[in-house]
Specification:
115 residues; 4 helices; 2 domains; mainly alpha; single chain
Amino acid sequence: MHQLLERYLKKIGIPGVDKLDSKPLSPGLPSEREDFLKWEKILTTKEITTEDLKLFMENRLSNALKTIADPDNSSKKDAKLKAEITIYQALLGIIKSPKVAKEQLEKYLEQLLKQ
């Protein structure tokens, strides 16, 4: 449990989440427990990293490449898949370009040091 939520429960004198009311005060409104769990999710969800995006795009690209090979695709579906492939390849290129540039420079400098 997030530290702020623990402190808040302690301040209001509630020993744990299980002691929060699980019934809404009014129809259509969340219960205390639902609110608390929503707050906990907000406070504990990690930020998306570049690596997370890269993995997501690599998976989508892989799926699109597999799907485009299907001879039963309509021309509309093929066009959509080609656009997807182009977009994901471009975005992955942008994400990977600093790493590739760094690796190339390191190799170049290593070669210079060997001469």
